[in-house]
Amino acid sequence: MIVATLFAALVAFVAAAYDPQWVRRVDPFLCSWLVALTAWPVIVIYAVAPAVWSSADAAGPIFAVLLYGPAAGLSVAAALRAIGTHGFRIDQSAAILGLLTVYACAAMVIDGSGRIINLGMAMALLVGFIFRYRPFGLDDVSRAARIALVVTAAVLLVSVLFNSSRVVGACRIDKCTDLGAVLTSPFAGNGNLAGITITALLPFAVYRLPMWRVLAAVAGVGLIGMLAGSRTAFGGIAVAGALGIVLAMPSVTTRVRNLVLGLALVASAVYSLFPLYVGYTNSDYSLRGYLWNQALREIPDQWFFGHNPAFWVESGASLLFKANYSPHNGWLEMLLAVGVWGVGLVILAAVVKVVQTPDSTTRAYLLAYFSTILALSSLEAVYVPYFLGIAPFAALLPYFLYQHNRFPVSRHEVLAESQMESR
Q1: Which residues of the chain have pLDDT under 70?
Q2: Given CA atoms 324, 33, 196, 228 in this order, what sign does their dihedral have?
Q3: How many other CB atoms are there within 10 angstroms of residue 99's CB atom?
Q4: Residue 322: its pLDDT value, please?
Q5: Model-level pTM greater than 0.85?
Q6: Residue 165 and residue 172: Cα distance in Å, rounded?
Q7: What is the pLDDT, as a whole number, of residue 422?
């Protein structure tokens, strides 16, 4: 059943991504960069690393380098190319996140944190989105996202076929589906990252697809989310799938589209804040109740500037309280790490990104993406631009989209526009 589910997801993604002229239309650098940032960490955690090492401790420092090194290298290369190009631009929204990252670095140095390398990798992943020398349009990003979905599903299928004892586990009480088993890894503990990754790719992957291909992409993401046993992912899948269907309806007017997007954004934001207004015990939501309560106790001590991005992990390591990698809620994570000031910068960066995007269609898909991330943030801290969290790509994926009138339109966008006119 596991193999059949993955095969069905792969077929669905291939159906959504199929393009007989994809070689001519795909932007090679953008596609490589996006795949390295999104699909590659999933491939390492659920395929490469389990086949090579017994655990993360056995892999040592090379594991982190293997996980994010390719994307960081491409990001730095893009930044150096931009700086060496006459007339490069600075993405103001990404620069705001860069400012937050510098602050996070200062806070960690002052507090004597031992995780500066983690922060350095986060900076390397971000820098290529700050300094820009060329535009990336929604058409280019959507093709790359569809390829990332195909690559991810294909490698997961191969890994399950040839190394199932390492990447397929028995159901946990909090992670079980009708399949009777779930995707797992000694390097992640469960399939959550796989579910989050394919869910975050969905809002951009469905752009400019006919309805049946949109439904195929949503079905594929749903199948892998089910295999991952990720309750976190299903909230995001519901939002991304519903908005993808609405945006694919030619009969939907701009006014209705904007109304639906606005309502989805507000609803997702309210949902992401539910630990603040829903009663729960320490054992609820797979023991997230304990983590949320602990975070709510720690936040008031440094409510404005936060403790520092490594405070939670290092407190757990020093046995100040039981903690894993995050409080498992996006807002609690940011308030704990960078405080109200940092949360304000993150929100400002998102607003600037949407407002400075000149094309209304691109803005619509950006809003769909942010709605999806908010839904995911209810049970997981995915949007962490100032530190190397569970899903570094989540805060960076929208920054592949960059348009400015000083840049010429790319060849790929010219092709896309001419194809739309011919329709």
Answers
A1: 171-179, 316-323, 405-423
A2: negative
A3: 14
A4: 63
A5: yes
A6: 16
A7: 38
